[in-house]
Fold:
Amino acid sequence: MAEIRKPRSETVFYERAIRKAHRNKRIYKYGIIIGTIIAAFFAVLFLTPIILTITNSFMSSSEISANYGAVFKTTENGGKVFISKTVNLKFIPDIVSFSQYYAVLFKSPEYLVKFWNSVLYVVPIVGVQLMIAMLASYGFARYQGRVREVIFFIYIILMLMPYQVTLVPNYLVSQWLGILDTRWAILLPGFFSPFAVFLLTKFIRRIPTEVMEAASIDGAGEWQIFSKICMPLCKSGLISIAILVFIDYWNMVEQPLILLSNDELHPLSVFLSKINAGEISLAFAVAVIYLVPPLLIFLYGEEYLVEGISYQGGLKG
Amino acid sequence: MENKLKVLDKVKDKGEKLNRMLRRNAAGQTAMPKKRTNLKEHLQKKSTRKKIRETVVSWLFLSPSLAGVLTFFVLPFLVVVFYAVVNNPIQKEFVGFDNFVRVFNNNAFKQAASNTLMFSAVAVPLAVALSLFLAVVMESGIPFKSQFRSFFLSPMMVPIASIVLIWQVLFDYNGLINQVYLAFGGPSKIDWLKSDKAQIVVVILFLWKNLGYNMILFMAALSSVPKDLIEVARLESATERQIFWSIKMRYLSSTILFVTIMSLINSFKVFREVYLLTGDYPYQTLYMMQHFMNNTFASVDYQKLSASAIMMAIVVVILMFIMFITEDRYGRDIEG
Structure:
């Protein structure tokens, strides 16, 4: 009797399993649909401000003041323009006009000067910080020692310190060196920022030591191992670090506010907020111009950026 | 004759030596041992030399960065510590914790610290939970994954200065959010940036900016969960919820900690948004630590500056030690 019952229960078991699998599949299918809807919802929330900024930059100044008059209270046209009581948010301008860009690029040089300031801060900082970090991270990653471990830990602490802490020592040094209110006050601390060192060390530590040992046995000198083997293998790491450093300094607000009392040296990231209401239509165009370099970098290097962020996870690595 | 005798002696000597060697050979010993120790010593000497060389090389590579970090961060920080315990930079009289007490009793500092704390207490848990949720949604096999990832990551690339204008349009008293709020039956307009609601706006901005970054970290952690472990759990008829809470969460724990600490540290940076939105003198609930520091810089009060910087530093170091200790404990757990 028992022998007959056994196969029966087995089929029941399988039937149940199949039914369950079907149900799971159905749940899974619904799950994907719901997941897509949620993701799409967030994507719209995330993208709307960016798209609005870009489309608004193509509106003429009269259209801007008609739409946002209630917010920014434009008075440049002496009330001749209809100023709405409420805000009309428009995705697509009535007439696509490049007049704002024309005005920014050819008529108001101060924006370009500030943009150029930003470039003059960010490009040297990215370049030099990366070069110093390449050397230092090789020193950290290739050979280990107790003292070096402690120093690396100090680097991590420094990297995580907020500006409220690091700006005080920076200010004091700049004062002693007499570089307060000059570009160097921003540049020099930027050159030696420990962030790139930390991340690049993590990248180099992933290179198998056998590769470098083999090169060493084949007679490669330390500098050759560094420049011909280590750095080419870390190329993607270098790019992703460059992107992260670029974003950080392209966005800087705290340092110029404290280290540069001279407005002329301020980067566009600070200056943009000081545009007065009369030029609000220009502001959108300036904002978009300021947004273009990081956006291009993002389009080019998104994969690198993602890789760089993933490497940051787990500080000890 | 004498010469002959000498030669004979020499030959005898050699013969004896040869005999001794032969005997030793017969006993299974050779003359090699002596040489072998020589080689060992030689190798040892070489390896210590190599070690010294390696140490020198690695310090040489480190030196430029080390010099910069020492001059721009470490040494001046020691001076900051010194400034924090003296009465003023000229007299240099030791006053102990007076400066700290003075800062602590300062109303502006209290306001700034409590605002920053309040903000972090709300924004950080939200940032962690929402980004984890987004990462789970992203990893659940939805279509257009890479496109969605780009969308979520794009706010990170956008300079805050560029986007502030549109936030002003949205959250102004006559702005769009208020219109929507009224349309959905809100009683009256809210002055978002100049009322107690101001912190909500900043929290939204913070989330908008930081969710993508956190999400990438979570996605990396989720994809590192071994697939076979989940397969086995499915075969053992574990429900999805069980798989998530008992397996994935176990692997995510250290990432959650990391994301929490990073969000906390990023939340100290929210000053950027606040400053660009509202300028030097924001509504009082938006008065952040950095505002306090800026004002103290303006008044050139080194004692106050140093003391508050050190207090901030201590908070950050404590946070980091919590992270390292817990990571040690959990990290080992997972690898085993």
